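Service request form, structural biology core

Requester: graduate student, group of Dr. S.
Request type: structure prediction, single chain
Budget code: on file
Notes: please return the result as structure tokens.

Sequence provided:
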Amino acid sequence: MNSETFVHGLFFVGFRLSGALLVLAASLSLVFQVGETWYRFDPSYLAAFSFSLLFRPIILILAGIALYLVSPRLAHLAARPFRGSGQ
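Core staff response, request fulfilled:
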């Protein structure tokens, strides 16, 4: 394995792991937020309650999924400066 392949692999694993950890952390945050506020739920304030409780974790989950899915392309772009070095 040459250094270009190694660096590309490191970037790929780093981006993919970051995306997976972001999804995991946001999912746990969502579960704990719902768990600690479920008893205060009032159906007349459903929109405000849902927006304040669910919006940030859902956006973070979507960002983690997007990072996970585009990690091959990001790794390719990030490893571009290392092409041709250390042959």
